[in-house]
Amino acid sequence: MKLKLIFPCLIFLLYAGCTTTPKYSEVKQQLEKTDTIREIPVPDYAKGAEGHVGSKVCKICHPAHYAGWKTTYHSKMIQDPKSPGALVADFSVKSEHRTFNLEDVDLLVGSRFKQRFMKKIGNDYYMLPAQWNVTDKKWARYFPQDEWWNNYYPQDWKQRPTSLLCDGCHTTGLIKTGNKFAEWNIACESCHGPGGDHANAPGLENIVNPAKLPLDRANDVCFSCHLENTIPAEFWEKHGVRGYPVGYKPGDDLTNYKLPAPFIPGNEGNVFFRSGVGKKNRTQGNDFIHSTMHKRGIKCFSCHNPHNGKYTAMVYKPGNALCLMCHGESSPSGPYVRNITEHTHHKPESPGSQCIECHMPRIGKNAAPLESRSHIFNFEYMSPVQTIVYDQPNACNRCHQDKTPQWALNALKSWGGKGKWSWNSVLHVLPETTKQ
User: Has residue 85 been placed in a domain?
Assistant: First the structure.
């Protein structure tokens, strides 16, 4: 795109937060000196995402947001294996699952919980059949067999292109266009929509600000990738069987492009426990839509800051400080207690008094079981009752691993308070020998 088309109206620049108009070539040259992450070129077959300009252009007027985004995992989902610090897998570790070498890898996927590996074949990329699990530092087989789309693809990794199954949520622009994207990774236009009009004539009316959207449309921006889904069959003829909602752009009603993964109460599958709580990564939205927080109008980015990766999971504040932004002893949002110990029945400095350990315990699977935090927040779904009734992990025994769920449930009963009826309702049906 020619610079004269991007920046013709200087009068708008101050309004948009840009007080100078450096040449794009100058900015790009400076970025090349300061960025430690190697810029990955968009493959020829994917170039030309209509209306998109890329994060480098956004950086010219929004350098602070750009710099903050660069510290997030969103900016590092896809990396060049040669980029400093990008490779976390150990290729010196032998494994029957890994049938390839680092020289076979063209792109890296992920780095926090697991790392996967893409190979370019012809005009597309394909996921190599092994992944590195970060926590246990081991190789594991990677070949999805329980995804909803599995039956529509051959049992051969070389016939499962990432452009159809993965890249929608790992690039900027592909979800909207279906065949073109502006850049690898989850960048500015993934959340704000195509920025061509905004770059051409900066103004608030020609760019999407998710914070200004109604609750459902705002959360849809995140749910476009962070909600386990199926794609309506009527889309298949036009786009093929895709793993992402082709045509969606921020501000749209996401339900027109994807459906939440189906759940039948009492049935456990690869996505949900029998209670309906998510049991794997990427089910944050599935859990959240059932939460009291969602019903009260909380948005995903009320807690998560897409412009800063300083704290784990891109939250605004670490630990309890985040939750105490809205909750606390004197808050109308509760808990209605005089101090935290009265609420948690644990010492203030103990893990049991960390909000997320009870309301967002690690019960789901990322690379390994018990890595992914639940986003339903309601302790009723995290209690020992769920283990007793549904054989689902619970918050109490994640810490008290030497105890039984029945022990934990009896402990809860002894606390009294508003939960006493819930705990008694299950205790009275347990065999007598398990109640102690």
Answer: no
Same domain membership, residue 353 and residue 273: yes
Identify whether residues 361 and 274 lie together within a single domain.
yes
Task: Tell me which H or E stretch contains 33.
Answer: helix 24-34
**Residue 286 to residue 261: CA distance in whole angstroms:** 8
pLDDT tens digits for 7-44? 333 333 333 445 444 444 454 455 555 555 568 999 99
Backbone angles phi, psi at 364, to 5 degrees: -100, 175
Residue 249 lies in a domain: no
pLDDT tens digits for 292-311? Answer: 999 999 999 999 999 999 99
CA distances from 227 to 17, 251, 300 (A): 33, 16, 12
Range of the domain at 188: 1-77+170-207
Domain membership of residue 135 (yes or no) is yes
Residue 78: which H helix or E strand, with range? strand 78-79
Domains held by the chain: number: 3
Q: How confident is the model at residue 231 (pLDDT cuts 50, 70, 90)?
A: very high
Whether residue 321 is found in the same domain as residue 386: yes
- Verify that 73 and 136 share a domain, yes or no: no
Q: What is the pLDDT of residue 331?
A: 87
Residue 66 lies in a domain: yes
Which is it for strands 114-121 and 124-127: parallel, antiparallel or unpaired? antiparallel
The Cα-based distances of 150 to 144, 155, 156, 240, 241 in angstroms read 7, 8, 11, 13, 10
d(CA 73, CA 307): 11
Are residue 269 and residue 175 in the same domain, yes or no?
no
- pLDDT value of position 424: 85
Contacts of 196 (CB under 8 A, 6+ apart): 1, 50, 51, 52, 53
Q: Tell me: the pLDDT tens digits for 262-280?
A: 999 889 999 999 999 999 9
Q: Cβ atoms within 10 A of the Cβ of 82, count?
A: 9
The pTM of this model reads: 0.89
Question: Which tens digit of pLDDT belongs to each residue from 89-115?
Answer: 999 999 999 999 999 999 999 999 999
How many residues would you count in the chain? 436
